[in-house]
Amino acid sequence: MNFRSIVTGGTAALLGAGSVASMASAQDVSLSGETVEYVIPFSESGGSAAWANFYAPRLSGALPGEPTVVVRYRPGAGSTEGANWFQQNQDTTDGTLIFGTSGSTQFPYLLGDPRVRYEYNDWQVVLASGTGGVVYLPPELAENFDGDVDDLKDEFFLYGSQGATTLDLVPLLAFDMLGMMVDPVFGVEGRGDGRLMFERGEANIDYQTTAAYLSNVTPLVEEGSAVPIFTWGSLDDDGNIVRDPTFPDMPTFKEVCEATEGCETEGVAWDAWKAFFISGFAAQKMIFLPGDASQELVDAYSDSIRSVVSADGFAEEAEDILGSYPQQTGDAARNAAEQATSITPEAKQYVLDWLQESYNVSVE
Predict the structure, then answer these.
(1) Does CATH number 3.40.190.150 belong to domain 8-130+283-345?
(2) In CATH, what is the architecture of 133-279?
(3) pTM confidence score
(4) Residue 339 to residue 239: CA distance in whole angstroms
């Protein structure tokens, strides 16, 4: 697998005098003797905890003064409780508080969930991490897939789902756009349970995020009981959906949609799907400083993360946890964060109506 190294917006600008001055001011920052609390709004099990614990010791060694970086867990209310807490602590401006979000923090924000009392525009992003996902079928159904799903539209699919407003919104909306008859079985506790349903024959379509696919589904593919058909894709520097760098030989959902009769890659449905794809996958996990933190601190964190992800051996160390995806800082991270937390009013209303009509789910 080829690991794409860090993508930093404004690379050319780093060679300019203005950026040199900015870097010089960042060098004046020191966190020597301090403890940085790296708060995530989740429990200590799961992907976000693994991501945060992967970065914490590396940040400790890279930040000026080599502070101790400790991961703190504030789970609750689908991650909104921890995000609300961070919003209330925007006066912690000395660099000793950073906050990690995930797609399940972004989705309630995009949907206007009444539990949300946080505002991403008040925060300053210093890292955006993406991931991917792979959709797969049993071999007897996959043989009817030839780049489109036209020959699968008469099939009835069962899918183990955590819920329509979780990250499963992305596959459920994609299946609907493709015209597939997919009946979700809501209430599974995690994507791992959805995979087990597939293995037991209780579901006949599933998707897993990249790390889970590589570790748990690849053996099924090798034994011939599962066949991957497409990925969600990845995002290039210009915001275009391209092939997943971990699975470059697999078509993306965009490619399959373009090849499938009745599926459109423009219009309000597409805008809605892309907004949640970016929020849930292309820029799934992000690290923020409080909005009142100085530019010098933001630059120091950005420079430190840049040094972490560009270090020799990082790609190999990160592969099992982060996959082969860009770890974005600077302008690239800000662009990713803006896309991951933005949706047009029309696309938002489309999703709200779709949730109500398809699953009788109201966000209010």
Answers:
(1) yes
(2) 3-Layer(aba) Sandwich (3.40)
(3) 0.84
(4) 8
